[in-house]
Amino acid sequence: MPRHRTAEIASVNIAALASAARRGEVDTDAELAIAGTCLVLAGTITVQLETTRVASSSLRLWARCPGCSARAAVLYLAAPGLRCRRCAGLVYPATRQRPEERVLEQALARRTKARAALGAGPDPREPIPRRPPGVRSSTWARRLDELHEAQAAVQAALAALVDRIGDSATEAPL
């Protein structure tokens, strides 16, 4: 079975759709109906629904996957109809990343967040603005320290990635 990225396949949040159908908030063009404990889409696709009680003493609505009968909040439009993540063969993009790439991505996000806290854009070539009036010197210094730590994490992640690329290049046969 081919594996697809989540973003490549459309999804249907069955719980939200069924709740909206019960409240009468769904467009009539969608051909959606609730029949007992089933959600009927376009008159041909029937999805079994069930509820569980959550801590706030309210109910959470779930759908049963037509392929494997697993409980799911979201079903995806796959080849034989609606399916859960497992039946549709979906994987998260992060599962295809190498650990070094994931660490680098997290470090870059951390640096971007630290720059935003200082009022700077995500581009590391862009200068850090002056401390604005009303921001304590100690707060500004802490934010600068966080940016320096994030930059050090980016450099360490890049070094690890370069080392891995260098190691794989020396192992490859000529």
Provide structural commentary.
The protein is α+β, with helices and mostly antiparallel strands. Helix content is 39%, strand content 23%. The protein has 4 helices and 10 strands; from the N terminus they run E-E-H-E-E-E-E-E-E-E-H-E-H-H. The strands form 3 sheets. It has a 5-stranded antiparallel β-sheet, with helices on one face. The protein has a 3-stranded antiparallel β-sheet with strand order 2-8-9. A hairpin with a 6-residue loop joins strand 6 (59-64) and strand 7. Helix 3 packs antiparallel against helix 4 (137-171). The longest helix has 35 residues, at 137-171. It is flat. The relative contact order is 0.11.
Compact overview of the structure:
With 174 residues, this protein is of the alpha+beta class. The mean pLDDT is 79.
Low-confidence runs: none
- CA-based gyration radius: 25 Å
- The assigned structural class equals alpha+beta
The average pLDDT is 79
Instruction: Describe the global form.
Output: flat
Sequence of secondary-structure elements: EEHEEEEEEEHEHH
Percent of residues in helices: 25-40%
* Biggest sheet overview: 5 strands, antiparallel
Number of helices: 4
**Total number of strands:** 10
Q: What proportion strand?
A: 15-25%
